[in-house]
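$ run holo --ligand "iron/sulfur cluster" --emit tokens
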Amino acid sequence: MGKKERQCQPCTACCDGWVQMVINGVDVYPGHPCPHSTGSGCDDYENRPEDPCHFFQCGWIIENSPLPEWMQPENAKVIVLFNKFQWRNLPVDLAVPVGKRIPPRALDWMKQFSRENGRPFVYTEQIKEKGIYQKEQQVYGFGPQEFQKELLDRQQAGERLW
Ligand code: SF4
Ligand code: SF4
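-- output --
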């Protein structure tokens, strides 16, 4: 559990488009960082929008985060968002890669955490076409078979998952 308060900097993974969002009308997505991201911070931090910047807290920065120190997003190449949605009254976590895909060490940690805590999770992989990241992502589920099947069915039906 987090013993000391963690600091974002020098991480800017969420500002760099690995979490898709809209900042002051500008679409931010993989390959399209927020125009205010310097790569090591925000050049207009005082004026950053309430939503999402003030509210956004990745799973590594939150108080009492269960994520170990090495899972800092820029380091582990993954952003974890806890309790993104519910499935049959279970919290479902979301893990998105900082890069094309989540490296094996971080994904293995998530799987272990999921087994130990009985929390299914969803993880994504970025799709690249002709070397360019797309907005669409490949989505995978980890957890009970019924969970994975439902996820697949919902994806095939073109439903939003969260
Ligand atoms: S991904 Fe997490 S640690 Fe990194 S800048 Fe965003 S909130 Fe901070
Ligand atoms: S405005 Fe600043 S804090 Fe918000 S996404 Fe952009 S760089 Fe990050």
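-- notes --
Strands lie at 21-23, 26-28, 78-87, 90-97, 121-129, 132-142.
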